[in-house]
Design brief:
Arc Repressor Mutant, subunit A, single chain, two-stranded antiparallel sheet, elongated, alpha+beta, 3-stranded antiparallel sheet, 7 strands
Amino acid sequence: MEYVYSRIGHKARVPQSLLGAVCGVGKNEGGEAMGVTAGDLPRPTNAELGILRVLWDLGPSTVRRVHEYLQSEKATVGYTTILKFLQIMHGKGLVERDDSNRAHVYSAQLSRDATQQQLTSFLIDNVFDGSRSQLVMQALGGGAPASADELAEIRSLLERLEKRQS
């Protein structure tokens, strides 16, 4: 049985076999998530992104491990706060939870790249009226200047994109 949260926060237990029908996601016979894309999941909050960064850096982790990592980074967040955030994130589908052991192990549902793509697409569509060039111009023209390595990486990407279009 898995918990599923409605958009208004109601929680219900749903058998794993029905989870795909209810949420559009499910697990294959190997227990791997299937059918989950960035568009299926809510955008993480800033605090949730902080926890996702830890999970991307460390891989699957217990609440204690996430808490210790954040403390080493000088974050002043309590253990129970991390636990509550991970429970909420699990309900939203942002993290998976392995509860086969006494200490639950959490892992990010989506990769760092997939989450970055989700957030970038949101920005392009909702802030820059669908204009990728406006996003790039703002990113490169405002704030701190790009480093020489970043500019070289951008040039390389542009060259690859131009070759694909030719």
